[in-house]
């Protein structure tokens, strides 16, 4: 996720005690970087951390680390930036003994490239064929994947088994500092970079602050809260947006006026916290699971696919079975103005959700034909069950609550996008563990995912200085290639991306939390001991 920092995994104590000796019970030998799956006495170890068995030699660091604590070292002698192949699952355990959850970085990398496609790729409103379909898939779904991975990272920062005591307070402080940094950085980029692309970082800062009180919960309660939020919050947002004045709010609630103010971050912006929190909380629930277990991955993959079918299929059925739903949305598509297109480079009144002002649209398609939906289902309200090309909600009709297009902020949209994000994450985890050759081929994407904050931010100077909005597939491939080459080369010499390094430095003050209490407790203990000795002597 874009909010990743770094945790020094090497300093982390192992999960469970090591056996007394270099050999496991029953003979044989442990690989130097083999995980200890379960602590003695049952249960699942709190983290996927490396154990150095007696006699094993600590190996040099390999792939770039993120703050997600999924990082483990690569094999000895492997050049920086490479990852060793994980052996098959241990017989009888059903666990994949992964060293690092490289699939998480792969998912982050895909999310970054999806954002690139949504920002500078061809506009699916005017692009036909396979290219238009792939571009539409990136809209909204890549940012939802980012949000889910944000929750994943938050749990990994605070501990897969929640940290307590001083370590817990420091982890909370780190999350708060990261959230504030992202909030300030995102606001500054929105104010100073004149780009048509909506910056998501400030929203992520708000997400972190709002979900932080939940960091001690286990997977079950987190999943229930995410599901309840998906059911209730979109309806609440619909009512709030209808109640807000059309010309916006003034004063502190609308500040800063030329960026994302409080009301925008919570309710009216392109990624409103009220309806994006379920993604983050779902990511927290996923991070609580034992993703090294094959059975868990299978169940999670089925869950993701089921949610996607439920969301998109439910929307398609609702639009076709609820009387007047499609006709109402089609009437809105043919003339009503819509909101700014979130994060796409298409401003309000530029073609989505209203008739083009000229006889010919920017894509060379007759505007009348486009408005009437003759371009095909992808350009009419009939596509609202999966695509943003029908327009964006302006909350003037309850029929909008039946769509599942990625930026519609509806229950069905959240359910479907969460399912897609989970399925992508599980697919990435399984792919890198099962196919070593694929992992080697995907190394540049994994490198981008390991420094996703840097990769995300670096697109904006290009968009700003070159004045790029929606462009051609060649421009998109240029952005992807530049990010992949930079991340691959950087990761061969440095453990963290440049912005990840700076973010890690910014969170250093969190280590001071609780630092003064320990000496004070020691002094109190010594004072109590001295008082006890004095009292004993006086009795004598």
Can you walk through the features of this model?
This protein is an all-alpha fold and 540 residues long. The protein contains 18 helices and no strands. Helix 1 runs antiparallel to helix 3 (141-158), helix 3 packs across helix 12 (411-434) and helix 6 packs antiparallel against helix 12. The chain is globular, with a radius of gyration of 25 Å. The N and C termini lie far apart (66 Å). Residues 514-526 have a biased composition (Basic and acidic residues). This is DUF418 domain-containing protein. Pfam families: DUF418 (PF04235), HGSNAT_cat (PF07786). Residues 408-507 form the DUF418 domain.
Q: What layout of secondary structure does this protein have?
A:
Elements: H1 102-120, H2 129-138, H3 141-158, H4 165-192, H5 201-211, H6 219-243, H7 262-268, H8 273-287, H9 294-321, H10 325-333, H11 367-371, H12 411-434, H13 436-441, H14 443-450, H15 452-466, H16 473-491, H17 498-506, H18 517-539
Helix pairs in contact: 1-2, 1-3, 1-12, 1-14, 1-15, 1-16, 3-8, 3-12, 4-5, 5-8, 6-8, 6-12, 8-12, 9-12, 14-16
Organism: Streptomyces vastus
Domain Heparan-alpha-glucosaminide N-acetyltransferase catalytic: 100-293
Biased composition (Basic and acidic residues): 514-526
Short descriptors:
18 helices, single chain, 0% strand
In short:
By secondary structure, the chain is mostly helical. It is built from 18 helices and no strands.
